[in-house]
Write a structure and sequence with these properties.
Distance between the termini: 34 Å
Main location: cytoplasm
Number of helices: 22
Binding site for substrate: 167-169, 204, 211-213, 267, 295, 301-304
Family: Belongs to the phosphofructokinase type A (PFKA) family. ATP-dependent PFK group I subfamily. Eukaryotic two domain clade 'E' sub-subfamily.
Number of strands: 27
Structural class: alpha/beta
Oligomer: single chain
CATH class of the largest domain: Alpha Beta
Strand content: 15-25%
Shape: globular
Binding site for Mg(2+): 122
Radius of gyration: 27 Å
Binding site for ATP: 28, 91-92, 121-124
Helix content: 25-40%
């Protein structure tokens, strides 16, 4: 990522002195809302603003009194890991009336509040925008009624609104993910994984209903993540005769020795006549046509509950800070905006543009223009797929996706066991559609993976490529996979067998691959770290003051320690990329000592395993124990390989599925382009690529061009986007530090999605 130029702005230049910010949650609750509230409060206080809670949403704003309370730093402690919203949420009929909004305006003016951060769905945000548009008129009425002084009109002339979307349905246009969606997927996948074991035991069919009255995101992504047999969503009603096709599919899977069937239905699923498709209808259909033992499970509000995932905590924290930035920079002419996520980047979009597009989607569906609603939201070649490097949760989902997309596009797919070590030994076999059934939810690498690089065995690998007539390679792995493609690219000069399209998909818990902001497996590792830190902190509940020193994996890459620290609410995170010395350690101990003298009872410090040769985990533990004597005691934990194991998170299942499918579509395109005179011959730089997430999009990048961006000694990229999040972690832990806002979101217009040839839907 390019470094900001001389126009770099630091947060000290943006002052909140004299400003009052209020935060409320409205509509349905969603996991992660508390993380957003916490970020708004602490960032607001950090810049010198007064921050208020509005309890019970708009109802609390209308009622006033104790429902609007000033927030302190300590009032948002220990809420990061709590689901729901601790400040309450309620639907308010009175706020929909002019009289209700007049009361709300009076309550805000009494406290000098002219900046509102609203966390909710499209209805809540629409109400906030109407309130803003009426603001000056409401103040005039309050003056006429003698409720406020006339100079208040000038003093509080404009109401500034910034929204964050909290909705588990992910049904808001303009953002890739809403707060709460990832956590809801966690709940769904936990249930599906549990159901699959009992279904397999009894050879049952399970029909699961998930939330999504008007949006099928949860149903579709959970179906991809668990490898469901059939999915029904409101945006894509099935064609007439779907019942027979579904039964044929279920019957074929059973004939293929599959002992269970999973059907996932969004609660708003409909047919082409807008007639609801219910779980009972599907159950009766399967029993009548196939005679399968069929059960129905309706997940209901289980999806809203529980602890927020690491993704939602990080997303909500980033969005909360961005919301405060937006409020500080707004003027009387700035339209109300919503803070959104586009790829891996925060953006600000006009609130009403997003709301109007969201409403257009529903209107298109009501009018049976289903294809429009979705838009608003070859030859036979041999392709080999292999895993290289350490195992990462989500690798199997990526392999499954590659195999099935490849077969759908007419290729013959080959699986290579044990990476390049197995390749040179001839451990290669054809892999078919049914062979990857049930792979999505399994951790590790079912193909087997090794760190062996190809250079030492390049002649034997070339021989195997020739024997099996391999026309393209898909390599799924971490830094070793990146090195492997560089070695194979060099080997093209000697062996024509490597003059084929080659693409790498990043998969490593360390997230240290150049050319990609994210890697398959990193989200699962972050969730493991976050969950463990939550439990460790809880273990000190009710005891004396205690600080925990936690060691994370990552090699020389501090991603897990830094982003895990942000998700878990850490006080410090020591990493290789930010050198530190004994003075820094001493300052951290003193900072924690001061915090412990207030109401803070627990401290959390993360250390990347290779951050420093001398300041080891034991050294830091002993230092904190000695220097904190009499104020707090210390404990240490080394998380180890638990970060690498376990079932993949919904994000990693979904990310692995999508990125691998895109890689296969690229391979198909390159094979077509390079097939000449009966053979494939690809020897250009752009035929050997890494597919990575760069800010907003998935991008194919020639690996040779990434060499200049790589620190090969320490196996990390020279520039890493997440380093800009570290000041955020420090600010939320009450440190005074600089915060670079040059990369913060800028207000831009909503862009309608247009279908691309490469985005053609594929039956998974």
């Amino acid at each position: 990522m390019a470094q900001p130029d001389s126009k770099k702005i630091f947060f000290e230049n943006l002052s909140g002195a004299g400003k009052a910010i209020a935060v409320l949650t409205s509509g349905g609750d969603a996991q992660g809302m508390n993380a957003a509230v916490r970020a708004v409060v602490r960032m607001g206080l950090y810049v010198g603003a007064k921050v208020y809670f509005i309890h019970e949403g708009y109802q609390g704003m209308v009622d006033g009194g104790d429902n609007i309370r000033e927030a302190t730093w300590e009032s948002v402690s220990s809420m990061l890991q709590v689901g729901g919203t601790v400040i309450g949420s309620a639907r308010c009929k009175e706020f929909r009336t002019h009289e209700g909004r007049l009361k709300a305006a009076h309550n805000l003016v009494q406290r000098g509040i002219t900046n509102l951060c609203v966390i909710g769905g499209d209805g809540s945000l629409t109400g906030a925008n109407l309130f803003r548009e009426e603001w000056s008129g409401l103040l005039t009425e309050l003056v006429e009624q003698g409720l406020i002084e006339e100079d208040a009109i000038q003093k509080y002339s404009a109401l500034h609104i910034v929204g964050m979307v909290g909705s588990i349905d992910n049904d808001f246009c303009g953002t890739d993910m809403t707060i709460g969606t990832d956590s809801a997927l966690h709940r769904i996948i936990e249930v599906v994984d549990a159901i699959m074991t009992t279904a397999q035991s009894h050879q049952r069919t399970f029909v699961l209903e998930v939330m999504g009255r008007h949006c099928g995101y949860l149903a579709l992504v959970s179906a991809l993540a668990c490898g469901a047999d059939w999915v029904l969503i409101p945006e894509m009603p099935p064609e007439d005769g779907w019942e027979e096709k579904m039964c044929q599919k279920l019957s074929a899977n059973r004939a293929g020795m599959k002992r269970l069937n999973i059907i996932i239905v969004a609660e708003g699923a409909i047919d082409h006549s807008n007639k609801p498709i219910t779980t009972d209808y599907i159950k009766n259909l399967v029993v009548k046509c196939l005679g399968f033992d069929t059960r129905v499970t309706i997940l209901g509000h289980v999806q809203r509950g529980g602890t927020p995932s690491a993704f939602d905590r990080i997303l909500a924290s980033r969005m909360g800070v961005e919301a405060v930035l937006a409020l500080l920079e707004t003027t009387a002419n700035t339209p109300a905006c919503v803070v959104s996520l586009c790829g891996n980047q925060s953006v600000r979009l006009p609130l009403m543009e997003c709301v109007q597009m969201t409403q257009e989607v529903q209107k298109a569906m009501d009018q049976k223009r289903f294809e429009e609603a979705v838009k608003l939201r070859g030859s036979n070649f041999n392709v080999a797929v292999l895993n290289v490097g350490a195992p990462a949760a989500g690798m199997n989902a990526a392999v499954r996706s590659a195999v099935r997309v490849g077969i759908s596009e007419g290729h013959k797919m080959f699986a290579v066991s044990d990476g390049f070590e197995g390749f040179c030994k001839g451990q290669i076999k054809e892999i078919k559609w049914a062979d990857v059934g049930g792979w999505t939810g399994q951790g590790g690498s079912l193909l087997g993976t090794k760190r062996t690089l190809p250079a030492k065995h390049v002649d034997k690998i070339a021989e195997q490529m020739r024997m099996h007539n391999i026309n393209a390679l898909l390599v799924i792995g971490g830094f070793e996979a990146f090195l492997s493609l560089l070695e194979l690219l060099t080997a093209r000069g000697k062996y024509d067998e490597f003059c084929v399209p080659m693409v790498m998909v990043p998969a490593t818990v360390s997230n240290n691959v150049p050319g990609s902001d994210l890697s398959i497996g990193a989200d699962t590792a972050l969730n493991a770290i976050t969950t463990t830190c939550d439990r460790i902190k809880q273990s000190a509940s009710g005891t004396k003051r205690r600080v925990f020193i936690i060691e994370t994996m990552g090699g020389y890459c501090g991603y897990l320690a830094s982003v895990g620290g942000l998700a878990a609410g850490a006080d410090a995170a020591y990493i290789f990329e930010e050198p530190f010395d004994i003075r820094d350690l001493q300052a951290n101990v003193e900072h924690l000592t001061e915090k412990m003298k207030t109401s803070i009872q627990r401290g959390l410090v993360l250390r990347n395993e290779n951050c420093n040769d001398n300041y080891t985990t034991d050294f830091i533990y002993q230092l904190y124990s000695e220097e904190g004597r009499g104020v707090f005691d210390s404990r240490k934990n080394v998380l180890g390989h638990m970060q690498q194991g376990g079932a993949p998170s919904p994000f990693d299942r979904n990310f692995g599925t999508k990125i691998s499918a895109k890689a296969m579509q690229w391979i198909t395109k390159k094979l077509t382009e390079t097939f000449r005179q009966g053979r494939v011959f690809a020897n250009t730089e752009d035929s050997c690529c890494l597919l990575g997430m760069r800010r907003r999009a998935l991008v194919f990048q020639p690996v040779v061009q990434l060499k200049g961006e790589t620190d090969f000694v320490h196996r990390i990229p020279k520039e890493q986007w997440w380093l800009k999040l570290r000041p955020l972690m420090k600010i939320l832990a009450k440190y005074k530090t600089s915060y670079d806002v040059s990369d913060s979101g800028q207000l831009e217009h909503v862009v309608r999605n247009r279908p691309k040839e490469s985005d053609a839907s594929v039956a998974m």
